[in-house]
Amino acid sequence: MTDARTLVERALAAEPDQHDVARSLYEQALAAAPGDPLACAGLARLALREGDIKGAVAHCRVGLAVTPSHSGLLTTLGQVLRAAGALDAAVEALGAAAEAMPNDPAGWMAAGSACMEAELARQHVARKTADSGQPGSQPELLELAMESFRRAAALQPAAAAPPAHLAMAARYACAWSRADPALRSLAALHTQDPEHFAVSPMMAAALLDDPIAQRDGIRGFARSTLPAPVASARVVRRGHRLRVGYLSSDLHDHATAHLVAGMFEQHDRGRVEVFAYALDRDDGSAMRRRLQKAFEHWRDVGALADDEVARRIAGDELDVLVDLKGHTHGARLAILARRPAPVQLHYLGFPGTIAYGAVDGIIADAIVAPPGSEGEFAEAVLRLPVCYQVNDAARPLPGVARRSDVGLPERALVLTSFNQTYKLTEPFVAVWLELLRDVPDAVLWLYVPHALARRNLLALAMQAGVAGERIVFAPAVPQSEHIARLHCADLALDVLPYGSHTTGSDALWAGVPLLTCRGTTFAGRVGASLCQAVEMPELVTESMTDYAGVLRDVCADRSRLAHYRRHLESGRTHLPLFDTATFTRAFEGLLEDAANRTHWS
To answer: 522 CB contacts (<8 Å, ≥6 apart)?
Structure first.
């Protein structure tokens, strides 16, 4: 009689493409050895692939009843629970798996990643329900994540992923003393071996202020996670109108849609024929309806496999395909690997190089990608004449909330940064707190949904001699309420290395000036581009010393702040940042030039 171990080995060999054979072998193994953990894990994997979450969990539970601390089975259970959206339970399972195999860095990475996913999911729910986002008595997931990533980094000192994840988790927590050593390790790893350096692109953009390290890290990530693109098939232009497709999973009530909807509507139908390839589900929102009306051709392709999406796009015989996601959540860059269009560009979604051979060019401007910076990008840089970021002139005018309704003192000088906490860095927060210490009626207004980050910021304020009540934490609110409440601020504060993007445009639209500092990467130069596009170049600083000085000068001259507000409010109809029609004409010209371009190397 064949023993259970041999049956499991045969099942594993059959598992990739012979599911029925593998299932039969796993069941025979369980008959020979009831509760065998490897057989239970195999059956759970097969059930998960078939979408049977309940069955997958049940198989795991059968094995764990016999071997409660089996790391492989706990890991499989954690993966199943993550797929089911039971994130807190997944955290528990993957944490137990890591504890069962404490010398396995992959286990600690999985446990830490589950903690981060669960924490961010909590905040997403808080935003959707306009809750405060405070986790109450729930476990402190950021602390658990940092410890898991620390243990992984100690076990795998030559790998970039553990310190990158540790630094990112620490940034979310505003635990900069824990982020900084990890960042030094990351920089050293790039110096030692740039060719094999690989970092998750969003982490590279958020953490690395060296544009070459950022480029190399993203390129390494793309090389290791995305399929090799096929060779480009150049074609002759068809017809008198440019055929342009937009590929995105943000074609609903999303920050990207709020920026770009007006451009879709403004496209000149005599010049451009426009196709949407929606990778997301219909959320039933007014924005979704608006976007569907803006396109001549709308393709719902989210349920299709990458190959089928690519075939649909190729069948539309585009001249240019514009990816709006890049390396952000919901991206499907593998579609571009099939080369469904002769020219494939990235725009707006990701603030930096895509560093993937399926992307020919990135759309930027001369501030976020200044002349001479081409080496920071793996693809061609195509520059718009003013600001690269589109805005929607048709968005509703902001209402005017009262300070008392949003928890702010009526007569205070209100300084705000609604950037996510991973963007906040200690040098900038220290400058803000120094200003608060010296200007008694100033308050700092932040969106900080993470309880640990709030505690860390309040502790830093106390050390700086600033009373905790002078930091006001804003709750999550719907977009329309957020724009209305922004009017209560006097000055928006930018940060580095990853600055304000949509957050900056929101503030400027609400009539709130933005103080920024020009960074060393695309992600750190967007604030400067926005300020130039609203004709306020004097609020673009070039160093932390300059930033601190301008902040102090502006806060000492309230009439100057009032002048900025009048300038922005009266300029909504004509400032370049808000001139959607002119922007769209320039964008169409750039796409035509790209379609006619013969060389991309």
So the answer is: 205, 211, 351, 352, 353, 364, 368, 369, 376
Cα(237)–Cα(243) distance, rounded to whole angstroms? 9
Q: Within its chain, how far is the Cα of 3 from the centroid?
A: 49
Q: What are phi and psi of 416, to 5 degrees?
A: -130, 150
Longest dimension (CA), the chain: 90
- Helix, strand, coil percentages (3-state) for the chain, rounded to 5, are 55, 10, 35
Residue 287 near residue 255 (C-beta atoms within 8 A)? no
The residue assigned the tokens 């009017």 is 487
Higher pLDDT, 246 or 139: 246
Is-above-0.90 flag for pTM? Answer: yes
Q: What are the two backbone dihedrals, phi and then psi, of residue 130, each rounded to the nearest 5 degrees? A: 55, 35
CA distance 42 to 23: 8
Yes or no: say if 76 and 41 are a contact pair by the CB < 8 Å rule: yes
- Mean pLDDT within 274-292: 97
The per-residue b/e assignment along 537-572, b for 16 or more CB within 10 angstroms, e otherwise, is eebbbeeeeebbebbeebbeeeeeeeebbeebeebb
The residue type at 315: G
Torsion region of 53: left, alpha or beta (phi above 0 gives left; psi -120 to 50 gives alpha): alpha
Cα–Cα distance for residue pair 389/501, rounded to 1 Å? 8
Angle between the 105-128 and 71-84 helix axes, to the nearest 10 degrees?
A: 20
Are 77 and 96 in contact by the 8 Å Cβ rule? The answer is no
Summarised one tens digit per residue, pLDDT across range 537-575 is 999 999 999 999 999 999 999 999 999 999 999 999 999
* Tokens representing residue 457 in the block: 């910021």
Report d(CA 45, CA 56) in Å as an integer.
Answer: 7
pLDDT at 399: 78
CA distance 474 to 230: 48
Distance CA 526, CA 507 (A): 14
Q: How far is CA 122 from the centre of its chain?
A: 16
What H or E segment, with its residue span, contains residue 333? none
The tokens for 531 are: 């300020």
Give the DSSP H or E segment for 244: strand 242-248
80 touches 97 (CB < 8 A):
no
DSSP string, 297-344: EEEE-TTS-HHHHHHHHHHTT-SEEEES-SSSTT--THHHHT--SSEE
CB atoms within 10 A of CB 271: 16
